[in-house]
Records
---
Amino acid sequence: MDRKITSIVLIACLLCGVGVVLLDQRWVEYGVQSPVMQSPVGTFVLEAPVPDAPQTAPVYTVTGTDTFFKGTPEIMNVRENVPSQEEAPMLAEDALAPYGGLPKDAVLKDVEVVSLREANTTSGSVEAVYPQWTQVIYTQQVDGMPVVGPGAEIIVSLGEDGEVLEVSKMWRNLTYARDVRITPVSEAVDAIQAGNVIDRPQSPLGYTKITGIALGYYAEDISSPQKEYTPVWIFSGTEENSGNAVHVVVEAREHPE
Amino acid sequence: MTRIIDGPLRHRVHWWMILVVLMIVSSIPMPSLAYSYSVTNIEDYANSDMDLMPGGTDVTNVVKSWLNNAGWTMNFYHTNGNVDETDFGSQDSGFQGLDGAQLHYHFGHGVNNLGFGTVIQLSEWQIWNPDAVFREEVYKKWDNNNKWAIIDVCHLLEDEQWGGALKSSHGILSFASQEGVSTDLPDRFFRNVIDYDYTMAYAWKCATQDTYESNCIGAVVFDTKDQLDYDHLLGQGYVAPDESPDDDRVFVSTWQC
């Protein structure tokens, strides 16, 4: 029995080791020495495949903002029958109809049932969970490229039997402006290692596995007078300790103005 | 008919009028006449990679501006190396730190020590020197004047057991993920509670959602459900009673921003 366990552990270690070596070699070809990055922004492990970087990518001009908020403090109440994650997106689209409907450049990001937890501070256990609302989140995608940041989201919150509790839209309308040259992703890795990221987190991220890298755009807070969406490298992953999704965003223009 | 009031009667009418005026004046709600707040700001860390200057000062100025204009008085403002555990009410007697004022705002770093809960990092924090406030140090300690603590740090409420600090205090408003340095956050929050008279919990939800993208997790923990549902900033509306007798239960709500 002990030999069996030892064998399983050895095989697991071997497989992990092979994975790391293969990954390391792929990044080395692109000029990155190690998949593990220590940075002022956090500790990252590059598990993502290296993306193909185009020579150029579009810049978009902001032609207007579309922002509104309709909500009620009663959203914090507990409810017995909030929509399931399956039925909520359709209800959310209906909820957006009076506000011009779901924009064509919107994509569903997440659906979550938000719940109030009654926790015991002595035992550390959660003793009861009460649903509050179901939250449907859309983000923007421009010509197939993701937009991240606080200025490109629509949130619809649904209550008892699909009642619309809150609609929040922070959106910018865009039009193509010009193409700019793009830096290779290896330079974006260097930028992360130097801490040169857009919208730096307040505290350094813990051990974070980067599982996706894509070219996209960063939408600043909707109150910011952002005039253009310029290309950025978006490193997506999960912070191990918390399990939270994170984005690390780096300038992708070769010669930013 | 001419009424002549003379002598002692004239004086009696005069004092009666003053009394009426005083009664009317005293019946008008005087926002935050006797309320106080405290602020701790750590933006200069021994590890310079963690420095947040001038973010903490900027955030503090926003907090001071809103509360001072609303008639609140500052109990204390401690910064950087002058901030320690006692500022967070760790002592049973003597200096009560945040428990000496109705509202406390802290700005700085927080970290999730996997397996050891979350901590508020103090200025001398290093990997080999965990200079921090641990939740065990303030367990059941907030039992004096404090009603709410806004802890503007990353990760804190990934560990719901921080709610154990709330003996008679009502709530902690913070995050259960990374976040970013922003003066918009306190500006929006205090506008919500002072100008719009939102409840504390709802004001925090709205402020975090307006400021950050949905990867950020806003969070509150309250001692009772009534406090979470109905607490307004003192002077702005109803405030639910302190929990009595104190039990070991708290109510936690988290949402994607």
---
Amino acid sequence: MNNDFITIKAINKTYENHIALNNVNLTLGEGDIVSLLGPSGCGKTTLLRIVAGLETPDTGDIMIQGNSIANLQPEARKFGLMFQDLVLFPHLNVSDNISFGLEMQGISRQDTKGRVDELLSLVNLTQLRERKIQDLSGGERQRIALARALAPNPRLLMLDEPMGALDSHLRQTLYIQIRDILKNLGTTAIYVTHDRNEAFAVSDYSVIMNNGHIIQTGPPHEIYSKPKTKFVAQSMGFQNLVNVYLTMESSKTFTTPFGLITIPSTHNYLSDRELEGTLVIPEFSISLATSDIAIDSYFEGILLRKIFQDGNYKIQVRIGETILHFVSNLEINLPPIGAPVQISIDWSSVIVIPNDLKTILG
Amino acid sequence: MMTHSWKFWGAFLLIIFLAFTVVYPLISILNLSFRGNSNMVWIDVLTDNYYLDTLVFTTWQAIASTLLTLLIGIPSAYAFARYNFPGKRLLRGLTTVPFVMPPLVIALGFIALLGEKGIINSLLQSMFNLDDAPLRLMNTIYAILIAHIIYEFTIVVRIVSTAWANLDPDIENAARMLGASQWKVFSKITLPLLLPAIIAAGSLIFVFTFTSFGVVLILGGANYATLEVSIYTLAAHLLELPAAGVLTVIQMTITIVLMAFYARYQQRAALSFNLVPNKATTMHPRGKFDKLLCVSNYIIVLIILSPLVALIVRSLISDGHITLTGFTNLFSNERDSFFFVSPLQAITNSLLFGACTVAVAVPIGIISGLLLGNSANWRKALLDSILMLPLGISAVTMGFGFLIAFNQWGLNLTGSWTIIVIAHATLAYPFVLRSILPVLRTITPSLREAAQMLGASKGNIFTRIELPILWRGIVVGAVFAFAVSLGEFGATLLLHRPEHTTMPIAIFRYLGQPGESNLMQALSMSCILMFISTVGFVAIERLRFRNLGSF
């Protein structure tokens, strides 16, 4: 597979003193589905609009198979965009919406009809062919918008938070369908969202953005297991983030609220000087201590809350000033709220992230 | 889609049009009232008891009409907003029918129903063997007030009941849970929340009844004259132009202040509370009181429509017999020398003026719409309110302004058919603008971008997206313009020459003549006018995009 089908190179964009995009670089292989994940205002929609040609970057280039398309008008780029608010054409019915892009290419009426049928069956809405847009449900509109964007066979399909206003149950079924459809067609796609589960389910790899920067790029499991910054760790849903300092004695020993702790998996970049960092303690590495473990390997805390959820207890324990969140299964008899508890932490699965962003971005 | 020069020429054309049709006539009126750089005319008018009485009468009849309409309208608006009852949508729609009719049609309907030779009097006479008509409502203040209520009722239903329907009942429930009695809830919660809508409706009704012309002229007779009627009499019959100018300035000041009031509260009515979909706020009537309110809505609609029904019935009955002579005379009678034109010619004139009005008002409306465009800023808001000015200027004011403005400085358009078309177009284009603007605003930048991403060029976007979407708005606007021209009475009465007689003018002339035959022709002509207006407004309702373009 072509590894640099689409190249987004050194894009900068500034709006009235606000930096929307700061030196953004990204390459997509043919058939890749990439998700752009980040909070609203992080620049992901701006990046899409620049790639689409609806906005002009201050500097930078966009290339397809090595050829720059930066000077092409949006309609000449042969890219597709599924808008956040879908913007189906209100005066056209379902099939006319889908065939619009085909007609713009001058495709014959006969071929257009066949293609519309094909797409309608692809999104499983064959029966809605002649329906008015106003009479469609939210989920149906979403799928028609996808069919419309796919109809002209775009070289790159961009989807800007396409699940916008849908409820969470419908979202889940729909984004899984979208991935299946895109993969079946082999479409190269950029999928913008602020929901990490959606991003991970749909895409081959994710791009985490914040404040106009790309912070981290990689397959979902990699980003999850090795978040590069505190921001990425927060985006991944980690709740136990504890400030720590590297000690002088050892390159893997830290001053933590729990005392001096040695973290085996610490990366080398922390080794050369005293550094402030963030300890990321995954929920699964914390457990309530049972009586048979050594006395010096657990920590004494106070049980703050227990919330029954999804078949387990979500537990909050305070140790000194630090509150830790974790999950406990049902079998363990929990003490009452406010009572002392002992917990143990499996340090081998704990990650340390330097707080100094420059260390990473170089 | 719009290049710079396009915008520039559009704005240029619009400014010329507005300067000619709005600014220049208004300045001419003002200038006339201060003729000879003195305020003599003003002092004369303001110290003359006749004029002061007219001003007082105009004001109090407008206040009385407004309060009565609100008094009857608010409970009805409540029932429309909160209860489900069979035929509610249709009923609500029917309340609008009198409002969209030319005032002359309503006045004639009133004569057909309650006049001395009207249906009710005939029935009473034959039932009780009376020689004289027992009900004598013509030329009384009651006739004027009732006609105004019938005419303006829909404004309360439209504005207040819409606000009420969108008001979340849980706001009221929250107050009840906090210990408020039903009366407290109404006075402390519901009423304050609805007040902007009530004030908006009230000020609009006040403006309309304050400048009421056709209804007062025909139903008030010689006994009652509003400022509008006085301006007409002074200008057309007594040729006291400066005095007419002073009255016009007074009337215009009051109406513009109230229109501003309306605009302000109309906005607040839309903004001030939790908007929830109508469906969630309606329920089935349960108690006796609820049912009574719903039933009374049926009765109110029946009463509102009764003049129009009476108009049809009465135009087919003469001296107790069913007859078509009213209609056949319209098409065969060429002898009416006092008209100079045959009734058929009047109908043709009306249709021609309507078509010409459409041809002028629609382009003006489209240009204004495109200039106002998608976004809103203070400059556009200002342009918008200037463009809406003709709605606040009464028809007689417009006619009077044209009469003096286009008969000076070597400019002489008075008596021409062009002046009537321009007057009609000026009164009509705000309706075109209001029909187009909401549709135009649905064409968002992202809609254009969506088409662009699918490969559409700028030309394609215009022909395939913008024009087809806009088209219905344009057609609705055109029908509006046609209907406004067709029913226009006040301005035409001042500006027309006999050969330019339109249907409303012909109706008025027939009424001025004695005898059953003339009455029959007036009634028949009104029926035709009513029929054409109805067709127009049914077309508008069908063509209009859902929830767009309402006033």
